[in-house]
Amino acid sequence: MKKYILLGTLLCTALAFTSCSNEDYKDWAKPQASGDAAEGSAYSYGISMNAGPQAEIVMPVADDDITIATIQSEKTLPFEIKSFTINGKELDIYLEGNAIKTSAARLDSLVEATNFSRAAIKREMEAEVFYSVLDTDQKDSLTFKNVVKLAVTPAATPEIDPQGYFVLGDFEGIGWNPPTAGFMQEVEDGVYSVVVTTTGTGSNWFKFYCGSTYKGESTTWDDINPKQMGCIEDGDDATENLLVWTGDPRGLEVKTPVIKGAGKWKITLDMKNCTYTVKEKLAGLDDLYLTGSNYNWGATKSD
Q: What tens digit of pLDDT does each residue of 109-131 get?
């Protein structure tokens, strides 16, 4: 999607910029570069791009529309943004005056997906911006590249439940019955896993729940639903995914993930990063067997 703005006569901030050739630009995805303020550079055309007042944000924010960069020019030149990317992934932006703006939630989502983590840790990154202007003769299209530094800190994640976590779903011996919860084992600090056997060859639905909501045989849906966890979209069969929880700060509703196919699966829940993974567990893989003389060295013990 192209984004346009007509640059007015604004005060130029004297910054150095990466530039490209002043010849007709054939392939904007592969810009040529030269030294700061070189002939044909953005600087030589009186153009500067700076980080915006909200280039560093801490989620959540009151106003979802944030200014992450600004552009200024000494001349009146038609201007077009070709792309605004972070780690190769394009961020949808729009222009308001000389401000380059985006949705804070969309930026947060991109950062979380890129780092495969929803942990409330400051993530610093560089955004590559490709943009074009028409030369003063209004004929030659010049394309420039700038790097804008951004930083995002995702919103706080839920505290780790001291009672651990359990799953319910289309699994043998577990099902969708709260009293028969499949509790997960803590394998390291904040990381839990469980091995399940799916009941169908198609989509096997499941969700996570906090262990502190479990009350044994008397456990009901009213007990566990307030602390359920899942994914963003119903039926998502991703084997590596970001977690969504009740009261998610992005306003996301908890949906139900699936495991595709019948078999034995290992589900791992990482509450430090609020992610989960699903891995098929082949027969014998990671299984530990005890043997010895008391067990006839693997043979069936006779009475």
A: 999 999 999 999 999 999 999 98
DSSP 110: H
Pairing of strands 165-169, 94-96: unpaired
What does the alpha-carbon distance between residue 70 and residue 51 come to, in Å, rounded to a whole number?
A: 6
d(CA 98, CA 246): 39
Q: How many helices and strands (H and E) does the chain possess?
A: 2, 21
pTM of the complete model: 0.77
- DSSP assignment, residue 104? H
Question: In this model, does residue 164 exceed pLDDT 80?
Answer: yes
Whole-Å CA distances, 272 to 121, 130, 154, 188: 11, 36, 13, 11
Determine which helix (DSSP H) or strand (DSSP E) holds 195, and give its type and residue range: strand 191-197
Show the tokens assigned to 169: 């779903």
Please give the angle made by the CA atoms of 225, 108 and 277, to the nearest 5 degrees: 55
What is the share, in percent, of the chain residues with pLDDT greater than 90? 64
